[in-house]
Amino acid sequence: MQPRFSPAIIVHGGAGPIKDDSLAARLDGCKAAALAGWQILQEGGSALDAAEAAVIVLEDNPLFNAGTGSTLNTLGKVEMDAAVMEGNSLRAGAVAAVSGIKNPIKLARRVMDDGRHVMLAGDGALLFAREIGFPQCAPEALIVEREKRRWESVHGTVGCVAFDINGKLAAATSTGGIFNKLPGRVGDSPLIGCGTYANAFGAVSCTGQGEAIMRVVMARDAAQLLQDGIDPVEAARMAVETLQELTGSTAGIILIDRHGRIGHARNTTHMPVCALQMGAPVVAVC
Amino acid sequence: MQPRFSPAIIVHGGAGPIKDDSLAARLDGCKAAALAGWQILQEGGSALDAAEAAVIVLEDNPLFNAGTGSTLNTLGKVEMDAAVMEGNSLRAGAVAAVSGIKNPIKLARRVMDDGRHVMLAGDGALLFAREIGFPQCAPEALIVEREKRRWESVHGTVGCVAFDINGKLAAATSTGGIFNKLPGRVGDSPLIGCGTYANAFGAVSCTGQGEAIMRVVMARDAAQLLQDGIDPVEAARMAVETLQELTGSTAGIILIDRHGRIGHARNTTHMPVCALQMGAPVVAVC
Predict the structure, then answer these.
(1) Cβ separation of B119 and A216 shorter than 8 Å?
(2) Cβ B214–A220 below 8 Å, yes or no?
């Protein structure tokens, strides 16, 4: 089959202040993740598989607040959220407040593939994992030294949106949430429409102050702008502006429209992103 | 202070087939709930307090699938979801997959009032309840005989949207979820933008096939139609139509716009609703 569309992918490594010297390493991490997804797209794989693969790379990189390296809640424990969504089918899967899962994005994908539900939270999600034979790890295995020492609030989340040669869109988002959060806190990342959304018109992943992102249903808002025909670069800027106007909060956003055009924006000081498109240089910025 | 707006309220008792002889009793239950909220509105109380009060009445009525009388999951246990949102402030609170809470909507309100987070799930939500001294009950206390005998899938959820004399809007939704759901399953009800949404332009509560409602972010979609100036009756109809077109699923919706105008629609056989407006007769339909 001839490819009918030029694939595209963009990943982000979380929006917020980056006060240590990890900026270059974070950009490298985003590049590695984007390349992992890009390889799948180039081989004719689906946007869904590409987005999941990119997020797995970010989850496994201890620099990012997702999977290994997730931030700690008030009890000093890791609880993670993740969601994946496919634009053409509107299929979606999400897990919230799960612990002892090395790659929450993989479990979210399994919830989606299972098809009975869209979202599983807490112990129920872990029971589902056990029943489908999904591997669990020691919750402590995901804690890295840096997180034990952290006292700053960070808005780390990782995400990827991808567009495949069949013109399908997908979004994937994964996070350890916010530092010192209450146990059971669910942020925007696993909420379809808030931190993650994909339909026939666009795929979107957000990061930032989750409670504010939820209030404006930011990912769905951005997808609507794309559906209204607004250019992706402008749509990303407008979505961040709306969030700021309505809530006074900060966030970042990445998105791709149904033509494979990429957009990203932030009103934070940093958001490492890496974008890849056919015939275009690798774009990696903070 | 002179009231500047005429209040309005509408409640629903869940969309789906009602095959027993409980139709009249369900309508009576909706009327009692709407009247509880109406009294608050008439005394100058807030839309938020009115919506919460109406949903408490529905949660306490064992006929409805929320609070007492909630449906059972695959383990034969009750797990409930609830959310509340205030339109002018965009403040919101939600709890998901909680058990042993007589009125989940009250706990959702406490999450909102606490203000640190928007959503708490599972054991974390119960830990929060304990820490704020919120009463818990025996999980079994919410199980009624009917639910032990039920083998049909129902789409019971209860909801209320209200408009107060200060022109503020609020939405509240509460549910036991779907029969035989997996433990930890979170439906649309507690998800801001999916089953529950309120902003400056409208307040919306949905009920029906939760996984489909999530995929189209139905409540936010309907609020956008109101923001675009579409009449509430038409906006409700269009939101249900969009859901049906994109997912082939069934649902019901209630909403009020910023002028206090009410709308509701369903593509199910039944959805008991009761609406109250100044100078208008009580409207109660199935």
Answers:
(1) no
(2) no
What are A's interface residues with B at a Cβ cutoff of 8 A? Answer: 79, 90-92, 96-97, 116-128, 181-187, 191-194, 197, 210-211, 214-217, 220-221, 224, 246-247
b/e string for A205-239 if b means 16 or more Cβ within 10 A? bbbbbbbbbbbbbbbbbbbbbbeeebebeebbbbb
Q: Catalytic residue numbers of A?
A: 157
Per-residue pLDDT tens digits for A10-28: 999 998 887 778 889 999 9
Type of residue numbered A251: A
Nearest to A186 among B119, B197, B211 (CB): B119
Predicted ipTM > 0.90 = yes
Tokens for A68, please give them: 């290994």
The single residue listed with the structure tokens 């979170």 is B186
User: How far is it, in rounded angstroms, from Cα A26 to Cα A37?
Assistant: 17
Among candidates A121, A127, A210 on the partner chain, residue whose Cβ is nearest the Cβ of B96: A121
How is residue A60 written in tokens? 């496994």
A128 vs B217: CB contact, 8 Å cut-off? no
Question: Considering just the CA atoms, what is the radius of gyration of chain B in Å?
Answer: 17
Residues A13, A42: Cα–Cα separation, whole Å: 22
Q: How many CB atoms lie within 10 A of CB A277?
A: 19
**pLDDT at res. A151:** 45
